Amino acid sequence: MKESWRWYGDLDAITLPEVAQSGAAGIVTALHEIPYGEVWSREAIARRRRQIEAAGFQWVVVESLPVHERIKLGEGDLTGLFDNYRQSMRNLAAEGILVICYNFMPLLDWTRTDLDAPAEGGAHCLRFDAPRMAAFELHMLGRREAVNDYPPQVVEAAGRWFAESSQEERDELLDSIMAGLPGAFDRYTVDTLRQALRRYDGVDRAALRANYKRFLEEIIPTAEELGMRMCVHPDDPPRDILGLPRIVSSADDIEWALNAVPSPANGLTLCAGSLGAGPENDVPAIAARFAPHVHFTHLRNVRHDPDGSGSFEEASHLNGVTDIVAVIHTLMAEEKRRQAEGRADADIPFRPDHGHELAGDQGRGTHPGYPLMGRLRGLAELRGVIAALRWRDARAPSDAGA
Ligand code: DNO
pLDDT digits over 251-279, tens only? Predict the structure, then answer.
């Protein structure tokens, strides 16, 4: 397992010398300053790569090379956008960066309603509160059909929250929902989000799948040629929101995506936290089923509210619903399988995904979910699991992967 750390480049309040103290040698990053759809020039990639290497790291994964909204919508002539995407891939490959993470979520990326919910011991965590999300959809956006997307008690609680909330709390809710969009671009306001949603009228699950398949058909042959690994990130949360279809939410969806264009270059980012946010997803089983296609993994955990509302919050890395030890065990067995095949890229890069805001993190202005201490803690815990599994494997190798 290759330890890595997500770093937002010059937009990150955490410096590379600080990251160096984590002990991770890999950096996961993107050229967040380049607008979606434009080419990442070889020079800009090389500059970032040199900056990372000068600090003693290797740039191991691109997260993300974003897919332009028009590709997701299947809108207009997409030739230029596909050409640009492929050109960025070529430029990355020329700089030796071969693993690319991306997502196919319409409009929003990961979505939460609270960025500083209370967690154990006075820490703070990210939370998805179904009543607040419903309040946003029903009462702020005015999307009446959303009553059908939530259980009745959630719709009621949403009404109560909205009636009692101040303008400041509503603004904060909007900001939290927008916080998942990476990079330095404008977030949606309620009005611009309404307009953006209108563009998706008529784009149902089947249409989005068709657009995704077309994207894969356009780029996977280039990835094969370049020896690259594309790895789709699952939807977070893994369910439709804002009435938009989400198509990488379950084991069946993953199966569909991998089969849409079967190729070693068409793979998965196994994000334990995103998948785990769906109570019906058995993450260790998903890891086992798709292990040969996992080119990158995000390790973290969640905890569901027991009331069946769909609310959840981010738990510390080993302390939630998902058996992360089982996931790591499976991925380590997969690495052995790859080593036996003589693959040079047998090691799977992982990063401690998200973390609680712990002492010293609060007020530092780091990206939501990406504080220094919380992720250091996460990495240390995951590293301990890996060390223990290695120890055990060295003594009882036949048991590996069992
Ligand atoms: C959340 C991240 C996602 C991920 C993108 C990949 O913390 O894991 O935002 O980077 O969905 O395209």
Answer: 999 999 999 999 999 999 999 999 999 99
pLDDT band at 402; cut points 50, 70, 90: very low
Q: How far apart are CA 310 and CA 111, in angstroms?
A: 13
Active site residues: 233, 271, 298, 353-354, 370
* Substitution candidate for ligand 1 out of 11, 71, 102, 110 with most atoms within 8 A of CB: 110
Instruction: Give per-residue pLDDT as tens, 292-345.
Output: 999 999 999 999 999 999 999 999 999 999 999 999 999 999 999 999 999 999
Return the SS3 of 276: helix
Instruction: Report whether 173 contacts 100 (CB < 8 A).
Output: no
| H/E segment holding residue 19 | helix 16-20
Task: Give the H or E element holding residue 192.
Answer: helix 190-199
Tell me the C-alpha distance between 14 and 367, whole Å: 9
C-alpha dist (Å) from residue 115 to 135, 155, 179, 246, 308: 17, 22, 8, 23, 21
Q: What is the DSSP letter of 140?
A: I
Helix (H) or strand (E) holding 325, with range, is: helix 324-340
Any ligand 1 atom below 6 A from CB of 91: no
> What region does 151 belong to: left with phi over 0, alpha with psi -120 to 50, or beta?
beta
Average pLDDT over residues 237-257: 96
Ligand 1 pocket member 57 (CB < 6 A): no
The C-alpha atoms of residue 101 and residue 99 are separated, in whole angstroms, by 7
Tokens (6 digits) for 248: 């990488």
Decide: 102 in ligand 1 pocket, CB within 6 A.
yes
Phi, psi of 215, deg, nearest 5: -55, -45
Check residue 327 and give its pLDDT. 98
In this prediction, residue 398 carries a pLDDT of 59
Q: In what order do the strands lie in the sheet with 124-128?
A: 114-118, 124-128, 312-315, 301-304
> At the top level of CATH, which class does the domain 2-106+192-401 belong to?
alpha beta
Give percent of the chain with pLDDT exceeding 90: 94
Is the C-beta atom of 369 inside 6 A of ligand 1? yes
Residue range 75-95, pLDDT digits in tens: 999 999 999 999 999 999 999
Q: Given this model, what pLDDT does residue 185 score?
A: 67
Assigned token pair, 390: 């290695």
Per DSSP, 237 falls in state S
DSSP code for 136: I
- Cα–ligand 1 centroid distance for 309 (angstroms): 24
- Distance (Å, rounded) from C-alpha 175 to C-alpha 197? 17
